[in-house]
Amino acid sequence: MSDITDAAHGSRAGADAVPYGEGPYFRPTSIKPGIVGWLTTTNHKRIGILYLTAIGTFFSIAVIFGLLMRIEEMFPGPQIMDARTFDALFTLHGIIQIFLVVIPGIPTIFGNFSLPTLIGANDMAFPRLNLFSWYLFMTGAAIAATSVFINGGAPDTGWTFYVPFSLKTSVDVPMATFAVFILGMSSILTGINIVSTVHMLRAPGMKFSRMPLSVWGLYSTAWVQILATPIIGITMLLIVVERLFGIGVFDPTKGGDPLLYQHLFWIYSHPAVYIMILPAMGIMSDLFPVFSRKNIFGYKMIAFSSLAIASVGSLVWGHHMYVNGQSDTAGVVFSLLTFLVAVPSAIKVINWLATMYKGSIQIEAPFLYALSFVFLFTIGGLSGLLLGGLSTDVQLHDTYFVVAHFHYIIFGGTGFGIFAALYYWFPKMTGKMYAKRFAIIAWLVFFVGFNIFYFPYFVMGWEGMPRRYFDYPVKFADLQFVSSIGAYIMVAGIALVFGNLIRGARKGEPAPANPWQGATLEWTLPSPAPLENWETPPIITKGPYEFGLDGKANGSASGHSPATEGRDGPYEFGSDGNANGSASGHSPATEGRDGPFEFGAKEVEK
Amino acid sequence: MSNAANPPGDASAPRSPSSSAAPHSSDVSHSPHSTAVHDDRGRLGMWLFVSTEILLFGGLFLLYSAYRWRHHADFHAASMLLDRVFGTTNTIVLITSSLFVVLSIHWLRERRLGLAKLFLGLTLLCGLTFLVIKGFEWGHKFESGLYPNAPHLLSLPFGEILYFGLYFSMTGLHAIHVIAGMTVFGFVFRGMSKGTVTAERPIFLENVGLFWHLVDIIWIFLFPLFYLIS
User: Domain span at residue A238?
Assistant: First the structure.
């Protein structure tokens, strides 16, 4: 794109790497190489990579489970497994994807790797606690894996563990629910770490109103993690206690009420959906300005809508129980609140679209994922309104429609969001660049496969196909077949995506410090990021997306770069986007531009 | 929870220019003394953690409210079966222990390490007393066949089964917290002896003390809800 500035950044990065930072974070001079160095690290970037490795593995396993289910469902009647195995498969697929992949996904991978670099901190607020929560996470995963093999086999309750079935089924439930409890503890500790980091460790000048929106997303999510997760913790513990000692609080034969279980479960698990989607929305809000070369439209409203989703979203759990015997009044209230959550979600979508308007759009792999996010999330979100309506839900409850809605939101939204983030920060993580052309082809296969896979679910659900059924009437055979074909295409796409990323990490081209011309702080660090981010904290004077005035020169916001070099940046912008070029050309910004020039001096003076 | 308080010498002291960027820098407004920063951080982390604990118990309190609303007569009847002497004694013991923690923090700040350690020891003693009394109480209930799944308990009305189900879950979870608090207090005690918990750096003791007050407060809610409703 603009080789001159890239080169400039590159050389600066090269010069930086020697005196400070002890080299790349994954091969620092101060830590012994090898597995022990990784397992005892308290460095936020290394812990982020630990999570990435673990979650990538879990994701692949759960994708294979999903694929097996699609093979089974390709034709009516038993194909490759019995009904019990199918029950275990969808349960494990759900437990892994929900509790081990999408809930922890963005907060642990990017909340660790990127968050401190986005706010100008050198690490998280509690580095040791951070490592501890990774170990809790792995312990939870190990317990969940163990539950598959002992006490009569894998749980077959679905990921919701609804009573009374989860109290009666002969296979293992206590181990699996205890695993969820442990994973919840890990999630809480991550949330505490993120909130504390955002409050205590922002660099000088990094006001809340100057934080990148991905930080707002992570911050709102962290509050939900802190406030909602304890409820699932106690609920899962009660299942364990109920199974082991029979205390009776959920057992109808002893006066317990299964509906109360559902309440407790969804008090957490609905906000958990926002734990999944909010940070992805935050990252989208970072990506749209960068790839449109334009300031974000409606910064305050996006930040505010994150908080609104986090708070209102905590009050809508009852919409999972319209047909389960909940009172009608409660149903009406929950339905109203559910519709209200759609408002801040729509605000975000509109703001992203408005950000692109008259921008200078750069089609790169991360941006394609961001666009897919908006497309798929919108479909998923609108279909959610049908489920949020009291009468329509009677028809759609527990059908494939729910599965389609959920996968469009969570896989199409959060899943694509994670891939967007991965493609976006990959150069910072590895110091290398994946094959860009190939990344776009892989995205296309993935995206097309996804829609062929899940869109028929809407139709089948509308026509009454219940979820979690091993077999189905012949009238669904055609759509089931199409859906399976879509699943194969999608899995092939995911394989291409992973293959490209792994190949890129091993022998990709060296990446420049700021391959996307982002204006946020992390791009002022060399690629790959050094072990310690900043020698002296950067001083922030600008918002995160002010390309026009400050442009790539945002590098000057970081304390450690000589401001003059970055100063040339903005004028290169004209070639990328006329709006930006002209904005920096004759903006009456002399005053604004003088400020950053004097950084070096002011820093000492003040 | 002990991890919530990182010592200042942690490998990744974030933005602590005051330690590296030399005394000649006159700018202290942006970079307060790093120990203070760490203490604030630890304090914030602990408060957040405490709020999650309240919500953890909150799930149980929710169940309690729902079931008591439905079976209030049974709940009152079941409450008669608890021993108020045990309950009241335990309440006094636990409140006293909270006082001892405060005194321990006070004397630590006053640099009277001996007194600080004495009161911390007394706190531990109170915790132990609480657990012993609780053990006796549970033992009595087991003897009278009032434990989960006991044939006698199952012959009682639904409300009483639920009452005792909640009684054992909530006091049990509370007892686990007492044990956890005492364990971490043990580490604090060692820290005082080794000089890592000092008047300049009392955050570890303060944070565990905060946790202990939480355990105390939860009991102050549990006590009337189980013992005093008849």
Answer: 35-510
Same domain, A426 and A555: no
- Chain centre distance of CA A599: 35
CA–CA separation, A592 and A578 (whole Å): 21
Closest CA in chain B for residue A251: B162
Boundary-marking domain end, from A454, A482, A510: A510
Strand bridging mode A509-510 / A432-433: antiparallel
d(CA B204, CA A207): 30
Instruction: Name the minimum distance, in Å, from the CA of A57 to any CA of chain B.
Output: 28
| Number of compact structural domains in chain A | 2
A586 and A448 inside one domain: no
Rounded to whole angstroms, the Cα distance separating B14 from A200 reads: 10
Q: Any idea which residue has 């604090």 for tokens?
A: B188
From the list B15, B30, B40, the residue facing A121 with the nearest CB is B15
Handedness of CA A395, A396, A398, A400 (dihedral sign): positive
Within chain A, which residues score under 70 in pLDDT?
1-22, 31-32, 548-606
Q: State how far the Cα of A28 lies from the Cα of A30, in Å rounded to an integer.
A: 6
Tell whether A504 and A596 lie within a shared domain: no
CATH number at A411 reads 1.20.210.10
User: A229 CB near a chain B CB, below 8 Å?
Assistant: yes
Place of tokens 């020169």: A553
Cross-strand bridge partners of residue A24: A530
Residue with tokens 């295409």: A489
Nearest to A43 by CA among A537, A531, A538: A531
Q: Which residues of chain B have pLDDT under 70?
A: 1-37
Closest to A237 (Cα-Cα) out of B218, B183, B170, B54: B170
3-state helix, strand, coil in chain B (%, to 5): 75, 0, 25
The answer to whether B165 contacts A248, with C-beta atoms less than 8 Å apart, is yes
Q: Which amino acid is at A556?
A: S
Report, in angstroms and rounded to the nearest whole number, the Rg of chain A calculated over CA atoms: 24
Chain A contacts of B30, Cβ < 8 Å? 204, 537
Distance CA A47, CA A189 (A): 14
For residue A264, list chain B residues with Cβ-Cβ distance below 8 A: 59, 62-63
Query: Closest Cα of chain A to B167: distance in Å?
Result: 10
The Cα A40–Cα A62 span in angstroms is 28
Residue B23 burial (CB count, 10 A): 7
Residue A4 lies in a domain: no
Residue A553 and residue A520 in contact, taking contact as beta carbons nearer than 8 Å: no
Same domain, A335 and A451: yes
What domains does chain B contain, in order, with CATH numbers? Answer: 32-227 (1.20.120.80)
Q: Same domain, yes or no, for A454 and A344?
A: yes
Q: A204: which chain B residues are within 8 Å (Cβ-Cβ)?
A: 30-31
CA distance A540 to chain B (A): 12
Put simply, whether B183 touches A (Cβ < 8 Å) is: no
Asked whether residue A441 falls in the same domain as residue A555, the answer is no
Residues A497 and A571 in one domain: no
Residue A55 covered by a domain: yes
- A521 within some domain: no
Same domain, A505 and A574: no
Q: Is the minimum CB–CB distance between B51 and chain A shorter than 8 Å?
A: yes
Å from A33 to nearest chain B CA?
Answer: 17
* Residue B86, pLDDT score: 93
Query: Of A133, A141, A138, nearest to A175 (Cα)?
Result: A141
In a domain, A541, yes or no: no
Within 8 A of B154 by CB-CB distance, chain A residues are 254
Q: Could you give the ipTM of this predicted complex?
A: 0.84
Pick from B2, B6, B15 the residue to mutate for testing the A interface (most A CBs within 10 Å).
B15
Question: Taking CB atoms and an 8 Å limit, are A245 and B4 in contact across chains?
Answer: no
Query: How much is the pLDDT for A8?
Result: 36
